[in-house]
Amino acid sequence: MSSIRGKNTKPELVLRKELWSRGIRGYRLHWKKVPGRPDIAFVNRKIAIFVNGCFWHRCPKCNHSLPKHNSSYWKDKFQKNVERDKAKTIQLNEADWKVITIWECELKLDVKKIVDKISHLLSSKAI
User: Fold this and answer.
1) Tell me: the pLDDT tens digits for 72-92?
2) Angle at alpha carbon of residue 80, lines to 3 and 2, rounded to 5°
3) Could you tell me if 16 and 39 are in contact, meaning their C-beta atoms sit under 8 angstroms apart?
4) The dihedral of CA 103, 108, 111, 113: what is its sign?
5) Contact status, residue 55 vs residue 82, Cβ threshold 8 Å
6) Which of 126, 97, 111, 124 is nearest to 20 (CA)?
């Protein structure tokens, strides 16, 4: 597990590349000054984006099965991941941040549609 990246994962890079190609800039990466260190944070607009891997964060759409070996460990590990994700969202919402969670599978399907939604949110939210 030590080789599993926590930052700059392939899904994050795909999203950032599309944001950059559309001219959407002005975000911070893994910004430490807010709870949860969002993968992408538009600080002035108080928008936090988390790019979650489907396996590690237990995507509700993909429904990955548990590993067969040491399943009690994995069940506990995944449950803690999900609880941590919920806690981050709650903390950010309490601080008046808009939280967007993007799943790896959504990026694979249509990254342009996701960037359209982010662009629309950025343009509609006042500074």
Assistant:
1) 999 999 999 999 999 999 999
2) 10
3) no
4) negative
5) no
6) 111
Q: Where are the domains of the chain?
A: 10-124
Q: Pick from 41, 39, 11: which is nearest to 26 by CA?
A: 41
> Residues 6 or more apart from 93 whose CB is under 8 A from it?
99
Do 37 and 22 contact (CB within 8 A), yes or no? no
Helix (H) or strand (E) holding 109: helix 104-124
Is the CATH number 3.90.550.10 carried by domain 10-124?
Answer: no
Query: Where does the pLDDT of residue 65 fall: very low under 50, low under 70, confident under 90, or very high at 90 and above?
Result: confident
pLDDT tens readout for residues 7-22: 889 999 999 999 999 9
